[in-house]
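Quick start: load a record and inspect it. Here is Cytosine permease:
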Amino acid sequence: MSATSADRVLPIEQAGLDRIRPDQRKGRPHSLFGIWSSTNLTPATFVTGALGVQLGLSLPMAIFASIIGILLGSTLIPTKSYVGFRLGIPQMLMSRATFGRIGAVLPSLIGLFSFIGWFTVLDVLGAMALNDGLGIPLIPGIIVLGLITLAVAMIGHDLVHKVEKWVAAAVAIVFVILVFVAFNDIQWDYAGDTALTGGEKWGLFGAIVGIAFTYSGPGYTPYASDYTRYLPLKTTFRQIFTPSFLGMALSCTFVFALGAAIATIDPTADATALVGQVSGGLKIPIALAFAAGTVGANVLNVYSGSLTTLVFGLRVSRWATAAGVAAFGTVLAIVFRENFAANYEKWLLAVQYTVPAMDAIFLADFFLVKKGRHGYSDVDFSLERANPAFHWRAWLAYLVGVAVCIPFMSSFIHTGSVAIALDGADLSYLVSMVVAALIYCGTSISIARSKGRLRSRNIRDDQPGLADIDPDHAL
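Running the structure step on this input writes:
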């Protein structure tokens, strides 16, 4: 096969951090449904959905809390996706306009931390599924899944979209089959932990809302823009919003509910182990589906992680950074494979306490401060010429947004006074987003008004006074 025909079959992406030109725009917005569906058809979504029942909620309360959080979180995905479409650049490159040329290191590090962390979580869970279903030892399973993921991510954008579409369809079928297989074992009338008081249950309800919000929103927002930047310029907001929102909300709700339902069989047991217990003769296909879902979701983490690494100014190819992200994530998966449940809880909390404020600042900058694409027309995103080095208002908004949420935290790290008063309900993510957005918008408006007054004064100063008028031209 010639190089030309090979490129036509599997075109290797060359763009890197470059802005996508109008003649490079391609694709269809409905492919976003497959992208955001496949990210949730994974063992990580299943395990997270089981948490409500495992912590003591009844099955209906666990599912209802999950739905509320998922609907809130899923609205962030299409809005961030729209930003990427309008600007035609990767998510983390936008941070240079918001946080500054050097200041962009902060959100980029948080984004990279998110990508590698999710890669680690998914790689471990996928390997556990292969171990339960096929008897493959954890470490070889982790390495094999990492290599397959890297191969897809290195080819780039077009193959990512194709893989996500087919993974979403295949894994969804297996998950539906799992519902029928486990139906008779599920305790549909499960009432939860009777030792919990009414207040404790509602506090736990609020905590599950926060977990579901974090998983379906901030868990994915650091790379939401990366998969719309190629879409044709004629694409509308509705064409992006509908498939992105439905892909995320429907798949996440389905798998969360499935995880909660199967957890009722034995709330004290490991959720993935319960799948093997009820799957019977379908143990191998279900294990393979979990592994495929892991690859589908991790492709996004490696691809976007490779783009984010380039934002630091490293003069290497996207392929090299993709290999670095996958290798680092694989090593972490091997290191943290033991005591996974506790490590996963810590990871979810880390995302919940660091990403929402950053999301709020990005969205406030695009929709409220710069008011869309034209507000970025004079922004230079290159590392060499971007000015200024720091946008102090973004840093201030982020740091204050994270700090003020401390009294609202409810976790093993810290339980704040407000969270205690709310019986353990964690509202830190909402407080963080609102405060960060208000501070960023307020300081941006103040700066704009100051510049406007200075510009007006300069214009008046430049106008000639009576003494400056040439007498020969006086009326």
